Amino acid sequence: MFQTFESHADPAHGKERVPLLRAELASRGVDGFLVPRADEHQGEYVAARSDRLKWLTGFTGSAGAAIVLSESAAIFVDGRYTLQVRDQTDAGIFSYESLVEMPPAKWIENNVKAGTRLGFDPWLHTVAETKALRKACEKAGGELVALDGNPIDAIWADQPGAPVGEVAIQPVGFAGELAKDKIVRIGKAVRDGGATHTVVTDPSSIAWLFNIRGADVEHTPLALAFAVVPAEGRPSLFIDPAKLGIEAKAYLTQLAELHAPAALEPALRTLAADGATFGLDPQLAAEWLRVTIEDAGGATSDLPDPARLPRACKNEAELNGSRAAHKRDGVAMARFLAWLDAQQPGTLDEITVASRLESARAKAGEDVQMPLRDISFDTISGSGPNGAIIHYRVTTKTNRKLATGELYLVDSGGQYQDGTTDITRTVAIGTPTEAMRWHYTLVLKGLIAVSTLRFPAGTRGQDVDPFARRALWQAGLDFAHGTGHGVGSFLAVHEGPQRIARTGTQALLPGMILSNEPGYYRPGEYGIRLENLIVVEDAAQIAGGEIAVHGFETLTLAPFDRRLIDVTLMEKAEIDWLDAYHARVASELSDQLEDDVKAWLAAATAPLSQ
After folding, report:
1. CB under 8 Å to 352, separation ≥6 — which residues?
2. What is the spatial distance between Cα 380 and Cα 377, in angstroms, rounded to a whole number?
3. Cα dist. 412→29, 329, 484 in Å?
4. Do 12-155 and 168-308 have matching folds?
5. Strand-pair category, 197-200 with 277-280
6. For position 7, what pLDDT does the model report?
7. Are 278 and 300 in contact (CB under 8 A)?
């Protein structure tokens, strides 16, 4: 099993540990401290030693922050975690704030007293974020103070060590482009950006650039490292040598100068002293990098991570790999859903079902000699009211039965060497209510609206997002998360810069893979989310049209629960799309399924008119 179900949350953490932090801060002459859920790479996926927010507060979500002052503390989460944070943290210690409506900078303006010295770790905040925090502190009459060493590390007695997962080479047959050619491309982007060097801080970009994968964080094949890429010449890769076996070291030595992580600071200072100009991505690069370079006499300028867009726009080899991975995943989902449908309501629990799904993925991979390398995130396996917790993680403490008359939401994915998958289905356990069918159909209409959308070049994720919500909005409903995130190629299941959300400002480009996952959540009763992965297609002319427009290809192959669809709420074009999609699912999967599963799939994908 790639997933465990032990509870890592304990609200008592805050009561025990916040006083220790306050004492440490007082010894350093500061009145407060910012605790982001971030590491030196500013990524969503952090190693155990870097999950300081969880250690301090008990909150286990993938996004958030806390501010601890001498007499108060606040924790910030987005709409996915509004229920979870209250279950996992102590309301007597922390006030609850919205990461979107009341982000830390705004909270500081309203709550920090004049004269307050607010400490922060410059490794854990980006250049842009630090600028906003400093401005907010000054507006409140306080001071933002960079600390030398993280104070939580000083009080975390059993803090895990730095990860040393083994690095593996991603063959060009899956990557689609040689690393040496990518390095030339990125060097040109640095030169075109007016810089002599850039520091690549995102481990996903490093994995893409050098065609390597790692094992330093859960469920995502990343090797934590930094790279300095010059406009001309060989890059330098700063990575723990313990991660490199003989083959990986020999491979990387051909591409870059290899150094231990401790060599990064002197290397930056030497280059800076020689007059280098570093292009840094203000949204990704740590403030520590900017300060170190400028203190040593170098210059910095804003330069978006030059690997980010090329990584997001998958080439044909990566897209073919993703299609194959989704077909394999579809076989696993068909077997799983057929098995689930045959069980008696009330006989299964969330952990049993999640474990069965992981086993189905493993078997599907074995069938075609493409083993499941990992799940792409902890499976969200939520029955009844647990399904209404948007990022619910089942544990032995929260595990409950799938009872008759309830909905069951399962959001899961796999990591295969040829692709990363992510799929959500909501199914009825027993007979659904009319309210369930109504809400489910509204969510389905949103998914179909995005799936069938045609759009001109330059369309952004925020332009697409309302299409997923229209049917819900018409009914006075909505959901508190984005409609879609980018997905990597045997990389992070959450990948930027592409996203379908109110904040999605990146134009959608051919080859970008995104999720399409509208939802509806009724706290205390049930949650509904439906998710397919889609890829942006090349623009094409439409008969009679005047401009070429893009569309989406759907990658995911799995049926929707026909018992939950109210056909009277659907338009003919929506029914036609769903019938065609279901026909495709049956056509592509049936020849790989056992007879009983094939029969189940035939019924599950029958036209809605039947």
Report:
1. none
2. 9
3. 46, 10, 15
4. yes
5. parallel
6. 79
7. yes
List, for residues 417-432, the tens digit of each pLDDT value.
Answer: 999 999 999 999 999 9
Whole-model pTM? 0.95
Q: Using the 8-state DSSP alphabet, how is residue 296 labeled? A: T
pLDDT band at 80 (very low <50, low <70, confident <90, very high): confident
Nearest-5° Cα angle at 63, 131 to 61: 155
CATH assignment, 313-601? 3.90.230.10
CATH number of 12-155: 3.40.350.10
- Single-letter code of the amino acid located at 563: R
Burial class (CB in 10 A: 0-12, 13-18, 19+), 170: buried
Q: Which SS3 state, helix, strand or coil, does residue 422 take? A: coil
Which 8-state DSSP code applies to residue 125?
A: S
The total of other beta-carbon atoms located within 10 Å of residue 462's CB is 17
> From CA 224, how far away is CA 390, in angstroms rounded?
29
Residues paired with 366 in a beta bridge: none
CATH value of 168-308 in 3.40.50.1370, 3.90.1150.10, 3.40.50.2300, 3.40.350.10: 3.40.350.10
Mean pLDDT of 381-401: 95
257-289, pLDDT tens digit by residue?
999 999 999 999 999 999 999 999 999 999 999
Give the tens place of pLDDT for each residue, 539-575.
999 999 999 999 999 999 999 999 999 999 999 999 9
Closest among 439, 581, 519 to 79, alpha carbons compared: 519
Q: Tell whether the torsion through CA atoms of 217, 484, 89 and 154 is positive or negative.
A: positive
Q: Can you give the residue ranges of every domain in the chain?
A: 12-155, 168-308, 313-601
Calculate the average pLDDT of the chain.
Answer: 96
